[in-house]
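quick one, two chains, predict together pls
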Amino acid sequence: MKTSLLQCVLFLFVCVVFAQENTGKPDFSSFEKSLMEPQSSSSDAEKAPVESESASDAFERSLMASDSTSSDFEKSLMERPSELEPIYKLRENLLSAIKSKDTVTASNIISQLSEHETRSFVPIQYMELEVVYIEMNMYGHFLDMLLKYYKTLLDSNRYDENLTFASEDGLALYVKNQIMQRDTTRNVFFAISNKINYARISMSKKLKLEILLLLRDAYRDENVGSLVRDKASRFVKEYGDDPDAAWIKKCILDPLSRKSPRELALIERAERHEDVIEEKLYTGGFGMNLFFIKGGFGLGFDRLYRSDLYEPVNPFVNLELYFQIGPFTTLLEMLNHGVNGVTSFGLGLGLVVYDSRYFKVRPYIEYALPGMDLKVKKDNRVEHLYAGDDEMYGFSEENRAFVAAVNVDYKFGTPYFFGSRSKLTSFSISGKFGVSYINLEDSDHFSGSGVSFFFDIGLGIYLW
Amino acid sequence: MRCTLLTKFLAFVMFAAILLSGCASSGKSVKKEKRPPLPEDTPVSFIYAPMTPIIPETSEYITSIETNAASGGCEAEGAIKYLERQARARGANLIFVRRVDKYITEYTGVYGMSTTTRTCTKFLVDLLANFPGGKNEN
């Protein structure tokens, strides 16, 4: 009597428990929607056509099934085609193997299930396999599954459009329950990283598994992306002989390592630097030269000035400003002609006859107005001049000079002009070598003519 | 005397000019060869990285682009069309969308009388050439 009563109670208890398993489920549609939502604001980009949509959404689609109430579950059992019964039997056996932690049986069943896969039917989905492998600590098989998943992810011809999945059975419910227990705010890697560390697989496989586990969130979370990049970089470096190293580098690491367009533009700008210089040779620009070292000598210029009254003064620097349009140049310069005290202001025309990465040769001819810079030696009250006075005479049309010279620039530095991608700045050591004919007719202070040979060396800057 | 000296000087200048002009050479530019553009009817595919975080092993990277309101407009559709044009112009038939962001842009009306804000979509993408079968070479 008591035994029979106990048996009834137990039977009723089992029925109640079974009913609760099938009626106490949360709203799967909202849960499934949360899995469907990407973590970045990407609603607009989802409108763009996505390659291999059917393959990449395999495990999301498996969770898009309608609300799994007990009536729907029982209905699905009744509507299940008979030819799929062996598959569902295998899935049931797999669930049993999971619960009994029988990894060998589970592995065999999974292999058998995989053999039943066709272009229109998937007997066990990647998400289900993931849950199984994690639950059973089968990380070697998990890695193989993830490799296969990602390597075929872009194969849009792998499945037909009317792809169906085995679902709505005990295994599917078990998987959904397991997923619900996960922390959906973080990648599953963080929950099982310790287990992976203790797994009985090689270090290279552990690292590969970590990369592939984190990969799904690499472009949704910057920190995860950095983590994947670092791990992939380490894998390629340490396990370069691994058969998957090249694939990981090409398909995972390189895209994650790419710079932003701004950084890319700077790198491209640097790479194109020599090409830009090459393209801009013999083109226009603006230059300025300052010559600090001057020298030369003159022929003629006998008794050019009263040496008892004056002494010549030479300018500290010679200055040249020039504009270049194509190979042609025009210039303004203040030039000391190699004769003490004789300076001129001139306008010239030139031609760039040689321009290269480091050298530029620019001969020119010039018409100048010369004059003299003289320092008074002793007082001359008649002319109101006093010792020490520095006076400049000439620079008028009565005086004239003709100059022919050549500039040779050594461009020791040619960086870009600030942030420009096409404008350059050249810093150069400039040399000027020339000859000039000077006729000075300011009879009050000096008079004479002659030919002078001069040279100048200084620094220049050229914007081009 | 002066005239003779001037004549000699000018003769020297002309002689030097003739000598130096022989050294003149034209500039050259050597441009890097680029991938030829694709016909306008070439289909361009998209991969959305947050959903599909890998690229085809047979693909070749060309360049990266970040769109803004000036390139293709504020709306996603305009930006997508712009990206397709840019891809074909550079010989790419695959666009790897790394990131999609929303940003707020302001523009001021005529005479500064009003300021309007609008939310725009910008894409950060990689342009790839994917011609399986070894046709990715220039």
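Residues 275-463 of chain A form a domain with the Porin fold (CATH 2.40.160.20).
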